[in-house]
Write a structure and sequence with these properties.
The complex is a heterodimer of chains A (102) and B (249).
Chain A lengths: L5 H18 L21 H15 L5 H10 L5 H14 L9
Helix pairs in contact in A: 1-4
Chain B lengths: L6 E3 L2 E6 L2 E6 L15 H11 L3 E6 L10 H6 L4 H20 L3 E6 L2 E3 H8 L3 E5 L3 E3 L13 H9 L1 H10 L2 E3 H6 L5 E3 L4 H13 L4 H16 L2 H16 L6
Parallel strand pairs in B: 3-4, 4-5, 5-7, 6-8, 7-10
Antiparallel strand pairs in B: 1-2, 2-3, 8-9
Helix pairs in contact in B: 5-6, 9-10
The chains are: A mainly alpha (102), B alpha/beta (249).
Chain lengths: 102, 249
């Protein structure tokens, strides 16, 4: 399991907020933990695929699309806070995320 | 910019301006491909014939190129394999027609480009994708495989071994890797894929007559579709015909 340091947590959080601001063409300041990806940003689950690809590349993570898909079926990530929490788990557990309890 | 107006057929919009056609996959936020014959081939042929194009861009409406085939539609086709085979054949005919077009063809890819979407993109001569685009053939993770000639066109771009690895694993490929393995030809800034594709076609075709473009691309297509003698004969024939054109200086 990778160590999730406070610095990495900050980095991941910033990447996620900047990603949604750019992709959804909204001001960064208008986003909060409670922002709903679908309802507030007109986003969809495929945005998560793009985001994870960016994080995979930056941190050289071993995580497969179908693994994330299986995890999200049990643990949907609808708000930015949920996306951040899921991304923390992906960073820490990579493909083993699928073995975490719901 | 002269625009010929937009027509919709199947899940695509067709429009043309300044000798460049744009086919936009438009089917919800994910642009799923509901069936292999996603556009009526006769309508597409007639539209292309009417436009006098130098290039064609295929892209997706909104964020994503296409998330691929509608899996529910594929499941529904389980009980009628003959119908599925015929639909796949029609779909392959559409992509073969696009692949053989004697104009510059570019897939302008943003967001997700999966499965059938990637097979459509592979039918183009060039793929221009955004920095955050993600490509994949995820079919094997669903217990199936690509059915619109992905197993044929992917190895031509990446080599056989890498194509087997990509299709069997179903893994995602980011823009940088896609460029490094020859799956895409250019990476551009996010949201500039269509404008970059238009510019790419313009630069490539400027000061070239439609006849020149047609003959050059047909001759190169012949190199893989015809035997050496036929390809050489056609090249000579095209060359002589161009000598008669007023563009020859």
């Amino acid at each position: 399991m990778r160590e999730l340091t406070p610095q990495i947590k900050d980095e991941l959080r910033n990447i996620i907020f900047e990603f949604f601001a750019e992709e959804c063409e909204v001001e960064l300041s208008s986003l909060s933990d409670e922002t709903n990806i679908t309802d507030d940003l007109d986003g969809d689950s495929l945005l998560f695929v793009e985001l994870i690809e960016i994080i995979k590349k930056k941190y050289d993570l071993n995580i497969q699309l179908q693994t994330i898909g299986k995890y999200l079926l049990k643990n949907p990530a609808e708000t930015i806070a949920q996306v951040v929490d899921t991304t923390y788990l992906i960073y820490q557990h990579e493909n083993e995320i699928v073995n975490l309890g719901a | 910019m002269a625009n010929s107006g937009q027509i919709k057929n199947g899940v695509v919009y067709l429009e043309a301006a300044d000798s460049i056609g744009i086919m936009t996959i438009d089917n919800g936020s994910q642009n799923k491909i509901p069936k292999p014959d996603f556009v009526d081939l006769n309508v597409l042929k007639e539209w292309i014939h009417e436009q006098d194009l130098k290039g064609l861009i295929i892209t997706g409406q909104g964020r994503h190129f296409s998330a691929g085939a509608d899996v529910d539609g594929i499941r529904a086709g389980r009980d009628n394999p003959q119908h599925m085979k015929e639909a796949l054949k029609k779909g392959k005919n559409i992509l073969s027609y696009i692949e053989a077009l004697p104009i510059v063809t570019v897939a302008a890819v943003s967001g997700v480009c999966f499965g059938a979407g990637l097979e459509i993109a592979l039918s183009c001569q060039f793929r221009i994708c955004t920095e955050s685009a993600v490509l994949a053939f995820p079919e094997s993770n669903l217990g199936i495989m690509p059915g619109l000639a992905g197993t044929i066109r992917l190895p031509r771009k990446t080599g056989r071994g890498r194509a087997i690895e990509i299709i069997l694993s179903g893994r995602t490929i980011n823009a940088e890797e896609a460029y490094n393995i020859g799956l895409v030809d250019r990476i551009v800034q996010n949201k500039t894929h269509i404008s970059s594709s238009i510019e790419f076609i313009r630069q490539l075709t400027q000061n070239k007559s439609n006849q020149q473009i047609k003959f050059i691309i047909e001759a190169i297509n012949n190199a893989t579709s015809e035997n050496y003698e036929t390809a050489c004969y056609c090249e000579g024939d095209f060359f002589v015909k161009l000598l008669e054109e007023e563009e020859f200086k």
